[in-house]
Amino acid sequence: MADDHAYQKTAESAINRHKERGHYDHDTVHAIFNSTPVAHVSFVPDPANPVPVVLPMIARIGTFPGPGSDGEPAVYVHGYVSARMFRPTTGRVSSDQNDDDQGFPVCIAATKIDNLVLALTPFNHSYDYRSAVVHGTATLLQPGTKAAPQNRDELLWAMKLITDVVAPGRWDNCRVPPDESEIASTRILKVRIRTASAKVRDSGVKDDAKDLKDAETVRRVWTGVIPYVETLGTPVPAETNGVAAVPGYITEHVKSHNEKARAGLVDEEGGLVSKVKMLFGS
Fold this sequence. Notes:
By secondary structure, the protein is an alpha+beta fold. It has helices spanning 26-33, 152-163, 180-185, 209-212, 215-220, 248-262, 271-280; strands spanning 22-23, 39-43, 53-57, 59-62, 74-80, 104-118, 126-141, 186-201, 224-227. The radius of gyration is 22 Å and the shape is globular. It comes from Coniella lustricola.
C-alpha cells in the first residue's frame, strides 16, 4: 500500500477505461463492499484444472481489533465446512497441509446500481453505479476443538461482523455464543487484501452532440434517469416467533436503511462518492 488510506494501483486493479471514475482509497472501496448485500467471489478450486468458479456470498471488510491482529483490513466470508471454497485443499497446488498454509488467490467484486440511465440512443444507455474489486489471498481461520481452540477471538468477531449484515445488533440479540457444533460446522475465510479499486459512474445522461442537434429526436425520445432504490419492507414474524412486538433495533434498521436509500445519492456539493462515504462508510 502506498499509504494508510489508499490501495496501490497495480495491473490487476488499475481502472483503464474511464480512468476518472477510478478510486483507490480505503473509504470508498470499503463503503461499497459494506453496503452491498451480496458479493461475488471468484477462485480456481484446483490449479491442476484451472476452471474458475464464481460464488455469491456475504462478504464484509473489517479490521480485527483483537490480539495478534496486524491492523490491516481484510475481507471476511463465511460458509459451511463442506462447501468447496472452505475445504483445506481448495486452490492449493499441493494437498499437503501444514501450519504454514499460504492460502489461495481470490477476486471479490461488489456492485450497487443507483440509476437507470436512458439516453437518446441505445448506445448511450447506461447505469449510474458503484463497484469495487478486491484481489487477495484467502486462508481459513481454523477453529480447532473445544479442548484445543484456535483463532476463537477472531472467529467470533468475524461471525458477529457478518451476522450484523442482516441487521445491526442482530448478533447480540440472538442466542450467542454459538455452541461447539455450530463452530465446528462453520468456516471463516479471511482474505488479506493485496490490491483493490472502486469505479463509480454518477454522470447521468451523456448524449452525443450529433444526437442533441437532431431536434426531431430530442422532441420524440424521453431522456433522464430512473432512480434504482432498494428498500426494506415491514418485518413479518415467523410462525414460531414468541416476541410480541418487533424489537427496536430491527425497526430502526429498516427506517435507517430506507431513509438512506431514498436520500438521493447525488448531491450538488460533493457528488456521489462523498455521499456514499457519509451514508455507508464504516
